[in-house]
Protein 1
Amino acid sequence: MDNNFSLDSLLNVSAVPQDDRVAAFIAESKNNRSRCYEMSEQMTAAVATDGQAFQQYLDVQSRFDRYTANNALLIMAQKPEAQKIGDYGYWRDQGAYVKRQERNNPILIMEPGKEYEREDGSTGTYYNAKKVYDISQTNARDRLQQAQPEITDAQLVRAVVNNPPVAIVAAEPDQMPEDKGALFEPEESCIYVRKGMSAQEIFRSVTPELALAGFADGDKNYDRNEDAFHAYCASYLLCKKYGVDTQGFDFTHAPEFFEGMEPQEVRGELSKVRDAAGDISSRMAKVLEPNRSQSQRQQPQAQHNREDAR
């Protein structure tokens, strides 16, 4: 036996020195962060100058409404068809794993890191690139993508008018403008809703007016024209999220709204739309989530009953 043989030397033949691993990690992190900034700038320019691209961004944001506008842009740049994303830890907690062939193809998003003090004394935040994976990149597609309980028309209407920022008043058709199913009146602090509409018509009509009421925030002299575009986009986001028909929406002229804006300003406007939709959605969730939980509890029992009947 070779007396010079060392188990430690065998184990470390292919090991990378600690300093090199740290340096490689720092370099990769820096590169990923730079890629995120570059992709964000590219997507911002695209959505600001192309109505189709803008609508595609809204589609992505509707599926990832809890993500920032910037991260929705990043998802759009890398995997616009994504449905549900998470990091390794998230998928492990779901009892799933990222497929081997997908491990080197992550979706990069940005998340806040440590805070720091700027030269002027204000506080800033470092952002780090985070690797996440869509459900299509895991073995969880069939096991975890269960059909969501269907929302009834009554639940949809009850949810959208839940705890509104202003009163909602039913109005006779002849009391409403011909082209309006709902109308926010700042001076009266109420939204008038045309009687006789279907649930989807009510939803499409009420959501932009709810957004406008949120923007007004009690200002009786509020000019609805100031945020008409934001409200229109917020309504589209909500319609996409809750399965309401969106064929009537048209974003051909969206680039006119962003004309002359810097990229950071464009992202600010996107965030304003996302936040307006989020405020309405959070109020809706208080009505819909208990119903979904009850429906999900009933599904196993219904399946059990069907099996007993065989």
Protein 2
Amino acid sequence: MHPRTTPLPPPDLADPIWTVEHVALAFRLGARATRALVAAPGFPAAFRTGPARTARLYWRREQVLDFVAAGTAPMPTPVPPAAAPAPARPTTAAAPPRYVAGEDDALAAIAAVRSARAVAA
């Protein structure tokens, strides 16, 4: 963003005019999936406030909500939770010190105390 440009406020779903950020927030989609959604047939037509081909796209809130109410909007698919990692196996060998002598005496002393506790346990 240009240093003289002030950042945009966060999208509010009560706004009468929506941007692609509003649509992403409403559908809980990422940027790429949102752009695919707004390009899908049947999605309300967007308008631009400027004549440039690269001008920002806007939608009327009511039209997007009517699109959702009609049941033609694809709902986001829930992402299955990631599998829980396997528990770490306890090792019998003491872990080597994390810090080598000569780096910093305080860190080396802490590492020595930790390794002594690991051997005692």
